[in-house]
Amino acid sequence: MFHRGPDAKNVAMPGDMMVIDFSVRYNGYTSDVARTVYFLRPGEERAPEAVRRCVKASVDAVSACAAFIRPGVAGYQVDEVGRSAIVSSGYPSFAHSTGHQVGLEVHDGGTLLGPISRPGSQRTLRKDEIYAIEPTVLQDILPDGTVLPCAIVEDEWIVTENGCSLINPEKRQLAVIEIPYKEA
């Protein structure tokens, strides 16, 4: 099931990054998970430092949010933690919310992990609620055409009595893909 649906007809090329944001519906409930992929250039064995740093900032921000979450905290407080982690890593803040509830729909429930001005962000988290957490590194294209790396690592967490617990498989490192390449 597509979360939003494909929005481009581009073909992945060596050196590209791709965000895969998807959901699955099972027994009436949905998930919302995202991962960032890097396509290796010929001769590369791993992604460049700028790409790895970008993904690490997103992973660290998700971890900071997870460490903060517990019953009784407000959605906007979680957003502040995620947003602050991204900015303190040297990246710009992002326009969307840090996260949202998941359940019968991809965006479900009334509590939003977003800025205090957004509806639902002043509500508090409760035990057994499930949240997708996705603080994101989004950057622009420089005037010279250089595309700066962007990354989303989105995981789902269930609020427990004293914190939260990851419910999707833990695979939070950057995925790399080698594209078969032939010299022209």
From TrEMBL:
Keywords: Aminopeptidase, Hydrolase, Metal-binding, Protease. PROSITE patterns: PROLINE_PEPTIDASE. It is an enzyme of class 3 (hydrolase). The keyword Metal-binding applies. One of its GO terms (molecular function) is metal ion binding. Pfam families: Peptidase_M24 (PF00557). Residues 3-161 form the Peptidase M24 domain. Its EC number is 3.4.11.18. This is Methionine aminopeptidase. It comes from bioreactor metagenome. The gene is map_73.
